[in-house]
Design a protein that fits this description.
Beta-Lactamase; three-stranded antiparallel β-sheet; alpha+beta; 6 helices; five-stranded antiparallel β-sheet
């Protein structure tokens, strides 16, 4: 894995609560050297990258990924995957969703979590196995990212280098990740839409300059 030192983020808070759980906070700074929609898109990708790095620290050995559902409602685009091989993310960028489209494409198509314990033998990966195996990816659990209106925005996936099933804590962590991912994507899309309605006059620094703070509870002993 790459070093977490590459992540542009600062720890906000970390401490034990009276309920025996640990609260961890992280902030994703805003890239203010861009303008307009580029700044919004850059902020979204930076925030998703920061979120994934935090989740990975809680689940050692896991490599996270967010794919974004394109406006056509069929195509998945790269969102963030700080520790997946870049060649792999390029291979799956632009792949369509479907009933047997790996873990992520199937999860978005079904609008439900897809657990693949062993990529080497699971039929959902028949057409995608050639992408994953050269990079040692053996398991992939994917959950659709759905906004408050019920629209699918993309997927959050957990990859492992060995076949394995998720524990209850993994499912809980995934639920948190998809919720926070939905908030990031929704905020970015709302800012883009507002800017379009205002004829491009929206000062995007007011939307992204404060960054994004992630704060959630983790089981004692996690991370």
């Amino acid at each position: 894995m790459e070093s977490d030192q590459a992540a542009p983020m600062d720890v906000i808070s970390a401490g034990a609560t009276s309920t025996g759980r640990t609260t961890v906070g992280r902030t994703a700074p805003s890239p203010l050297d861009a303008t307009g929609n580029e700044a919004i898109t850059s902020w979204m990708h930076t925030s998703l990258d920061t979120l994934i790095r935090l989740i990975e620290r809680v689940a050692p050995g896991m490599r996270g990924s967010v794919l974004l559902l394109d406006d056509d409602g069929v195509t998945l685009r790269h969102g963030a995957a700080p520790h997946l091989p870049k060649d792999y993310t390029k291979l799956i960028d632009g792949e369509p969703i479907g009933p047997a489209a790996g873990s992520c494409g199937t999860a978005v198509y079904r609008r439900e979590r897809v657990i693949v314990r062993d990529i080497a033998s699971d039929p959902l990966w028949e057409n995608y196995r050639k992408f994953a195996e050269p990079f040692g990816l053996a398991a992939c659990w994917s959950t659709p990212i759905i906004d408050a209106e019920g629209r699918v925005l993309g997927s959050f996936a957990m990859y492992y280098n060995e076949p394995r099933d998720p524990a209850a804590a993994d499912i809980e962590l995934t639920e948190t990740a998809t919720l926070l991912s939905a908030n990031i994507i929704t905020r970015a899309r709302a800012a883009t839409a507002l800017r379009a309605r205002t004829g491009g006059d929206l000062d995007v620094t007011s939307v992204v300059s404060q960054g994004t703070t992630f704060t959630f509870s983790l089981p004692r002993g996690s991370g």
